Amino acid sequence: MTDKFQNVIDQMSLEEKASLCSGQDAWHTKGVEHLGVPAIMMTDGPHGLRKEAGNSGEPGMQPSVPATCFPPAVLTSCSFDRDLMHEIGVAIGEECKQERVSVILGPGVNIKRSPLCGRNFEYFSEDPLVAGEISAALVEGIQSQGIGTCMKHYACNNQETSRMINDSIVDERALREIYLPAFEIGIKKAKPWTLMCAYNKVNGTYACEHQELMTDIPRDEWGFDGAIMTDWGAMDERVWSIKSGLDLEMPYAGPHNDQLIVEAVKSGKLDMATLDRTVRRMLELAEKGKVNLVDNFKYDIEKHDAVARKAASESAVLLKNDGILPLKQGISLAVVGEFAQKPRYQGAGSSRINPHKITSAINELDSNGIAHTYSRGYDLKGKEDAESLIAQAIETAKGKDVVLIFAGLPDAYESEGFDRTNIDMPREHNALIERVAEQNPNVVVVLHEGSAVSMPWLDKVRGVLYMGLGGQCVGAAAVDLLFGKVNPSGKLTETYPLKLSDAPSSKQFGQRLVTQYRESIFVGYRYYDKANKAVLFPFGHGLSYTQFAYSDLQTSQSQISDQDTLTVKVKVRNVGERFGKEIVQLYVAPPQSAIFKAQKELRHFAKVALEPGEEKEVSFVLGMRAFAYWNVLIHDWHVESGTYEVLVGSSSADIRLKAKVDVRSTAGDVTVPSYREKAPVYYALPQGNLDVPLEQFEEVYGNKINIPCEVDKAPLTMNSTIYDARHTKVGKWLMASTKKNLQKMVGGDTDDGNMRMMEAVLIDLPFRSFGMMGMPPKIIEGLVLIMNKKIFKGLGFVIKGITAQKKARK
Ligand code: BGC
Q1: Any bridge partners for residue 570, and if so which?
Q2: Parallel, antiparallel, or unpaired for β 636-639 and 103-104?
Q3: Candidate of 117, 232, 761 to mutate for ligand 1, largest count of ligand atoms within 8 Å of Cβ
Q4: What secondary structure does DSSP assign to 122-188, as a single string?
């Protein structure tokens, strides 16, 4: 039967088909006018709309239209609240509708493998279930408005350092158990319209041409039926990528790649049917995308502001409270720290939103008539004399009932484009807290940051409220929480280690060419638990102004097979004096096994609202996956027979109730892989820092790992970057002129996160992606040859490139 898409495909020329495989500019797909196929707009996200005003076509060059800045994923994930995520999604969808944007480029669901990843603020969790469930709810909310989403960055984009050329070496089991499930849950539950492939390679192959990642897993296994686009500039080998299942190259990078597709079909290298497969997906996307492009839709700015405020207050995490919070009205109050006046409420990079308004804590205190004395405490740019600012803060704090110190990570400390090198807050912030607390013990710290930090002063302060990056209403939400108008109910979705070297990936992170995920499945609490390592704050931790009691844990059966489901019920009572919300966490602990396993893994969660004295029964249904691990011998999920424990608690370190269940496997004769002999480190994680020997990781990885030689010693290729070429004359010139032009553009403020981000991105841009900036591939190839000292051949290429470009312009 020919459907309407087939009819359109039948009428298209080969050139028209190829043209649909790349964008029209930075933010639009191409249309085919005579066949009525519209071009649609896709733009960033994800925690609000970043639609560039004007239409320069160049990414990141234009200010964006005002939009509501909701809290980024780092904070909203801590709500553990699917309904809240849905509500945020609906609001974002409405903003897209008003701005005639068909697809928003988010959410980003990568796992926080290391606290150092510069983009952790855009990601949800170290735990795949949380990342999957929370992002699926957001996707459902956005798509309920007829607006598409784009789950990204698929997959294993867990660092920013040389993200466009780095190779993530991940064993099959860790890939399936840790890095893919967030995408899997999102796709199965919420059906995102599109996916965005990551920049990096996964196990030696660029994500964009990885058949398993582009087709076998998402489409054949999980049922994904949308289009997959590249991250901006992530295209490597155009024809291969189409074959492997990637559809759309973004942004437009000149006619070259479309032409390659045409030639490949003509020469028989690419089947027309394979091209048609992509064309059909693009036609379906265009069809869906045009439906909601209604005129005159207006969203309610105030209503969305209220959603942003609610999102921040329902997600913030009360990390420490010795009884000082909530604050009482009428106390004498000192407010210290520039963040109180200029909050850091979002991160730098492609997700940066231009908010309608920003409410700082000072604004909120003032508008509520709450008396306070303010002192800056530090200079956010780190330029002014720290000593005198601290001295002034100490004066302000003297004799006050309570001192609120707003501190954390300034913009230049974390961003898309580069990673952090430590987990410390700026020295001035730490010194300020220590020194003020010496003078006045009644200090409460309010933290603004997008990733875990160390807190050397923790014992010296009485309370810590984590506001993450809290969106445009962060100040209002902080005041609501500090004064008890809202009872804190968020919990951490990442572990806060005591120090960086405690983190399981600390030895294997941020490498330039190849990053080995040697810790395998031991990411986040899965590692700290098993290694019995003390942490600053555990995964799932968060306090409330009330208390909750757990009782009556019941399982529907004491024995099940791996084909059954198990219902688990537990009662939770609010035994305090205030209304509050509790996040009930259900973990499953496996029996002893031949294969190494985490001590327990989060398998379900629910957020319950309770009036004082009220009790509710919470019910969870567990399926086979709650008990399964990925078996690399059968390349499938497998449940081992044995007695599992169901653990219910208030955090990963605060388990309140336990029950046992016998699970019987129906899988027949399946060998459970054992690495006990050859990779013993995974069975007895050392107390000290994790440093998995290469040979042991190779056992688990199932292959030898080929570590390529340093770029500096190798010939440069189209996949090398300006940084790699810095020792050549052309490279030096490229490096200097990039920096100079950037400074001109950004205004030369090198302390600014945005400047650092753009510099990092450009210096690490592979030559193959220069097409995005309008440079034809022949010229780029020529430059690479010249840098490799093949001067004459290179010049020949450059001249050919320039001539071809001139011809094309005529
Ligand atoms: C980022 C994506 C973003 C895209 C478009 C890329 O550099 O990695 O997350 O959607 O730019 O701005």
Answers
A1: 618
A2: unpaired
A3: 232
A4: GS--SSHHHHHHHHHHHHHHHHTTT-EEEEEEETT----TTTTT-EEE--HHHIIIIISHHHHHHHH
Please, are residues 133 and 391 in contact by the beta-carbon 8 Å criterion?
no
Look at ligand 1, atom 9, and give the residue with the nearest C-alpha: 350
Dihedral pair phi/psi, residue 175, rounded to 5°: -60, -50
DSSP character at residue 213: I
Tell me the CA–centroid distance for residue 108 and ligand 1, in Å: 10
Q: Measured in angstroms, how far is the CA atom of residue 234 from the centroid of ligand 1? A: 10
Please confirm, yes or no, whether 231 is among the known catalytic residues. Answer: yes
CA distance 72 to 95: 16
Q: Whose CA is nearest to atom 6 of ligand 1?
A: 232
Angle at 59 between CA 121 and CA 772, to 5 degrees: 120
248 within 8 A of 148, measured Cβ to Cβ = no
Residue type, 472: Q
Q: What are phi and psi of 424, to 5 degrees?
A: -85, 145
H-helix segments, 641-767: 694-701, 729-746, 753-763
Give me the pLDDT at residue 117, please. 98
Spatial distance between the Cα atoms of 343 and 475, rounded to a whole number of angstroms: 7
CA–centroid distance, residue 95 to ligand 1 (Å): 19
Kindly give, in sequence order, each residue whose CB lies less than 8 Å from that of residue 474, ignoring residues fewer than 6 positions away: 71, 312, 343, 345, 359, 360, 361, 448, 467
Instruction: Give the separation between CA 248 and CA 285, rounded to whole angstroms.
Output: 11
Taking each helix axis from N to C end, the angle separating 427-439 and 386-397, rounded to the nearest 10 degrees, works out to 30
| Residue 111 one-letter amino acid | I
In this predicted structure, the answer to whether residue 403 has a pLDDT above a threshold of 60 is yes
Contacts of 268 by beta carbon, 8 Å cutoff, 6+ apart: none
Q: Is 775 exposed, middle or buried (0-12, 13-18, 19+ CB in 10 A)?
A: middle
**Pocket lining: 123 vs ligand 1, CB cutoff 6 Å:** no
DSSP bridge pairs for 651:
654
Q: Give residue-wise pLDDT tens across range 187-245.
A: 999 999 999 999 999 999 999 999 999 999 999 999 999 999 999 999 999 999 999 99
Could you count the other beta carbons within 10 Å of the beta carbon of residue 545?
20
Burial class (CB in 10 A: 0-12, 13-18, 19+), 442: middle
**What value does the mean pLDDT take over residues 452-473?**
98
Nearest to 48 by CA among 308, 357, 415, 359: 308
Q: Whose CA is nearest to atom 12 of ligand 1?
A: 350
